[in-house]
Amino acid sequence: MNRDTAVDFKGVPDREDLLNQLQQANQYTWLWIVIRLAAIAALIALISWQQVVFAPIVSVTACLVILGPFMMELAQIWGKHKKRLEDVKESTRFGDLDKHSLRSLYQNVLKRLQLPDDHLPVYITNDKSLNAGALRLGRLFGGLNGIYLNRQVLHKLQGEEVQAIMGHELGHYYKFNVAGDRFRLLTLVLGALVGVYAVQIIQLDGFLGFIVMSGVSGFFWYISSLDRVRHGQAIEYLCDDFGAQVNGIEASISGLLKVGLDSETRFLIELELMAVNADNELLTPQEISQAIEKATPYGHTPEPELYDSIRLELRRKAKANQQASISGFIKYMWESDRDDEDLKEELQARAKAVNQIDRMDWETVWQDHEHSPLHLDQVERLVQMIAESPKKSLFRIPESLSSDGIHPPMKLRILYLWKNRNSPTKL
After folding, report:
1. Cβ atoms < 10 Å from Cβ of 393
2. 3-class state of residue 133 by DSSP
3. Which residues are CB-contacts of 122 (< 8 A; sequence separation ≥ 6)?
4. Per residue in 129-159, pLDDT tens?
5. Contact, 239 vs 132, CB < 8 A?
6. Is the pLDDT of residue 1 over 50?
7. pLDDT for 75 beyond 90
8. Nearest-CA neighbor of 88 among 76, 79, 100?
């Protein structure tokens, strides 16, 4: 019996439609690159560089406003605490994995997905959230290209789930992306030059020139991100699909559920501790978040132990702030820049939003989710549960109800994998 007929797949795309969407998005990339290069060359010829030399403030402002955020993103990635897989110590363990077993898993993923072994760097970061990423910036910033796996992923997920995530990120890198996104810097440089030229043409300087520059820069920054926003969800669906080709949809869906559950736990702990410490003038919200990150261990930890560890770190930080010198404490209070009433109102609003989320009891389908793999019949029951309760959420976090603009809601990602599990269209 085909139980798919009982499932409402409204809003769940087909693999073929997504592939066509991405193909159309990349169809004229080369033409837009040529147009941008021609426009940049024309502006370089039209701009009065003598005026730029004698009045550099506008030019510097243009570069900072439009190129600054992009360069900051790169600087944060470059400065992230990370190690290439081959540089990890022999003694380092990631739960049941070490560098050699992790390399073996990665090589197996390349083989199953029929991808070339280009010696693409695989980085392990110290981040404690269940997340990963892929970066492909072309040759100019080639030193940052690679796959980034948060260490917590390796501690909390099983080998097949880690492989599904590797496959997802390799999908971003090799197959499913907006080609023009790799040339985003061209758009930003064009925007900076347009801003400089516009200010020279209308002969504005000072504050008015800055306003014009900000408007032009904001427009080109928006343009540079437009394709990513427009096609982001299609790319995420296809990368989930690609990762599922390694070990089947079971490993991909179990990984998604664990990622969502981890986000829910971290979110609810942070919300509770923010509320408990709202009147504590020795701790800022930022320090509370930092304490949670610092006190969270790698791997599985029972919630009571996790709470105790975080509370201990919060007490330690509060005591350290209390013992600071008078001048240091005054400086600390001045820099904290907090409004207790606004903070309380924000926390109340967040708590109210969380309490209004009707959570699905999906754990009844997969009870031993920490140790036992998810089976296809359990996935089928989960899909039926989602179909029967369309207004319920998988997790008590606001993100589980709606998209962030790039990642589809978790329920739709699961339904997509189920709907397209036997699709005849090749990825």
Report:
1. 22
2. strand
3. 84, 85, 102, 106, 146, 147, 149
4. 899 999 988 777 888 899 999 999 999 999 9
5. no
6. no
7. no
8. 100
Give the DSSP per-residue string, 361-406.
Answer: -GGGTSTTTTTSPPPHHHHHHHHHHHHH-TT-BSSSSGGGTS--SS
- The Cβ of residue 334 has, within 10 Å, a number of other Cβ atoms equal to 8
Give SS3 for 129.
coil
- Domain end among 230, 245, 260: 245
pLDDT at 2: 52
- 235 shares its domain with 163: yes
Strands of the 82-84 sheet, one edge to the other: 82-84, 122-125, 146-150, 132-135
Q: What gap in Å lies between CA 47 and CA 55, rounded to an integer? A: 13
Query: In one letter, which amino acid is 28?
Result: Y
User: Which neighbouring-strand residues pair with 83?
Assistant: 124
16 three-class SS? helix
Query: Strands 132-135 and 146-150: what pairing?
Result: antiparallel
**Which three-class secondary structure state does DSSP give residue 422?**
coil
Beta strands 122-125 and 146-150 are parallel
Same domain flag for 259 and 229:
no
Would you place residue 398 in the very low, low, confident or very high pLDDT band (cuts 50, 70, 90)?
confident
88 & 219 share domain = yes
User: Given 192, 213, 245, which residue is the final one in a domain?
Assistant: 245
pLDDT at 39 over 80: yes
What residues have CB less than 8 Å from 333, skipping those under 6 apart?
A: 281
Tell which residue, 374, 122, 109, 416, has the closest CA to residue 246: 109
Q: Give alpha helix (H) positions in 248-325.
A: 249-276, 285-295, 303-322
Both 336 and 200 in one domain: the answer is no
pLDDT at res. 372? 87
Residue 256: give the domain boundaries.
Answer: 248-419
Same domain, yes or no: 210 and 140: yes
Total number of domains in the chain: 2
Per the model's pLDDT, the better-predicted residue between 353 and 123 turns out to be: 123
Judged by average pLDDT, the poorest of 73-87, 190-204, 217-231, 312-326 is 312-326
